[in-house]
Design brief:
Layout lengths: L8 H26 L1 H4 L3 H26 L2
Helix pairs in contact: 1-3
Length: 70
């Protein structure tokens, strides 16, 4: 595939995969938020879980930003 302003098939696949990963994290966070009572986690465990998810999402968003820079 011809490069278009720094984009190529591999880079586009990385962009798509990273965006999919971010979406999956958001779905997991939403599920955990909606089901937090059923999970029977204490407040510290909840805080650690959501903090970890946010950090992972931020890291993935940074990767995405780097991939889309042309």
């Amino acid at each position: 595939m011809e490069d278009l302003k720094g984009l190529n098939g591999l880079k586009l696949r990385y962009i798509k995969d990273t965006a999919t990963h971010i979406n999956e994290l958001a779905i997991q966070m939403e599920w955990a938020f909606r089901n937090q009572d059923a999970l029977k986690l204490n407040n510290q465990e909840k805080e650690e879980f959501f903090s970890k998810m946010v950090k992972e999402m931020e890291k993935s968003a940074e990767y995405l930003k780097n991939y889309i820079e042309v």
